[in-house]
Amino acid sequence: MFYVRPTGAVKTIPLKDSKMEDKNNVKILKMRKNSFNWSLEPITKCMHVMGVSIPPSEEIKSCRLICHLYRTFCFLLVSFVQIILVIQVFGDAKNIANSYTNGISTTTFSWNFIIDNLNLALYTVGSHTSFLLLTRPKTWLDLVLSFKLLEENGHSSEIYPICRQTAVKAVICIITMNFGLDVLLGLDVLSNDAPWARKILDVLGLVNKIYPAVQLALFSILMKMISLQLKAIRKHFQDQFTQSHPSSLMLVESQRSHLIALRGHHRLICNAIRKLNRHFGVFLTLEIIFIFVSVINCSLFVLMGATSGDGLLGGLNAAICLESLVHLLILSSFSDDIPNQTDKVYEALLQLLHHQPSLQNEVSLFTEQLLHMKPQINAMGFFIVGKHLFPTLIGTTLTYFLILVQFHSAEKS
């Protein structure tokens, strides 16, 4: 095989070397397509467009200034929109609320309208701020290194392709849900009497919800990685240990050392979960607060839309309420999967002890570690995130909904 230099000289490269180089390139490409960064690529590309891109690599340091300027611009734009919305609603809440309810708004509805705008502002600006703090070079590197250690000690090659598929589905879901809400809000603002400046700001304010939505997707995919790591440990027990009976001292020692390595891998998993709790704690707290307040307010707005015959108002708030419930379902499902997978690892260890009593010491140490280091997702230590939040949400919503309806009825009478 021949290659021509710019000077015209001809250099001969052996065909064997060329084939080796091609094989190396293919190997590098395969390694890239089965890595942590590759699995998050659909989400990180969205983050880049939104102005919360991950820290640039050494090869593109020249873009750092542009990235910082773009990050600052996006944050200031989001903050400006939310601050103006809050200032306007505080200054003229009654008239703005009347424009959305065809003039039948009450003081209760106006105050709920103010609370709803404050809740949205705190949610979007707070989530955007925590997103920017998460993608600082030092913080992001700390998080990535935790997952890189899991990658180096991993026991399954299927983890990253599955997570990438989840990331693609998450991006499609985010775009679809936000587009649907924006269309409903656009139809609603076109039919009300609010000033055009307020209409545009309302649409932009709802568009800003894409920031917490993408952050939730990122958190869910990272949780999926950890869940699959625990699942790989359990599967390894079932496939390797329980299907073979040691017949030699050498085989017993090999399995014992492997069990010790798996115990160390579990400690790395617990360390990664602690870092997720630390770096996503503020966001999780804001997410749960927003969901509770949003569902309570939307229930009243849906009632107002039904009583006034305003189908757009009722449909829009029903869709927002549904989106909040979907967020809570996603958050609680991925969070609950971690202790569930840990329990399954514990059951697999007990089964292993039954099949191979010779590994009793190592199995006992592993089970004690599982009991004392059982990972859970919490929001800044205030509460555990899980499906148990659904009954709490239902009870809280019903309580406040009945109180708000009584106030609303008393004002009308």
UniProtKB/TrEMBL annotation:
<keyword id="KW-0812">Transmembrane</keyword>
<dbReference type="Pfam" id="PF08395">
    <property type="entry name" value="7tm_7"/>
</dbReference>
<dbReference type="GO" id="GO:0043025">
    <property type="term" value="C:neuronal cell body"/>
</dbReference>
<dbReference type="GO" id="GO:0007635">
    <property type="term" value="P:chemosensory behavior"/>
</dbReference>
<dbReference type="GO" id="GO:0050909">
    <property type="term" value="P:sensory perception of taste"/>
</dbReference>
<feature type="transmembrane region" description="Helical">
    <location>
        <begin position="170"/>
        <end position="190"/>
    </location>
</feature>
<keyword id="KW-1003">Cell membrane</keyword>
<feature type="transmembrane region" description="Helical">
    <location>
        <begin position="69"/>
        <end position="91"/>
    </location>
</feature>
<protein>
    <recommendedName>
        <fullName>Gustatory receptor</fullName>
    </recommendedName>
</protein>
<dbReference type="GO" id="GO:0030424">
    <property type="term" value="C:axon"/>
</dbReference>
<dbReference type="GO" id="GO:0030425">
    <property type="term" value="C:dendrite"/>
</dbReference>
<feature type="transmembrane region" description="Helical">
    <location>
        <begin position="111"/>
        <end position="134"/>
    </location>
</feature>
<keyword id="KW-0472">Membrane</keyword>
<keyword id="KW-0675">Receptor</keyword>
<keyword id="KW-1133">Transmembrane helix</keyword>
<feature type="transmembrane region" description="Helical">
    <location>
        <begin position="379"/>
        <end position="403"/>
    </location>
</feature>
<feature type="transmembrane region" description="Helical">
    <location>
        <begin position="210"/>
        <end position="228"/>
    </location>
</feature>
<dbReference type="GO" id="GO:0005886">
    <property type="term" value="C:plasma membrane"/>
</dbReference>
<feature type="transmembrane region" description="Helical">
    <location>
        <begin position="312"/>
        <end position="331"/>
    </location>
</feature>
<dbReference type="GO" id="GO:0008049">
    <property type="term" value="P:male courtship behavior"/>
</dbReference>
<dbReference type="InterPro" id="IPR013604">
    <property type="entry name" value="7TM_chemorcpt"/>
</dbReference>
<feature type="transmembrane region" description="Helical">
    <location>
        <begin position="282"/>
        <end position="306"/>
    </location>
</feature>
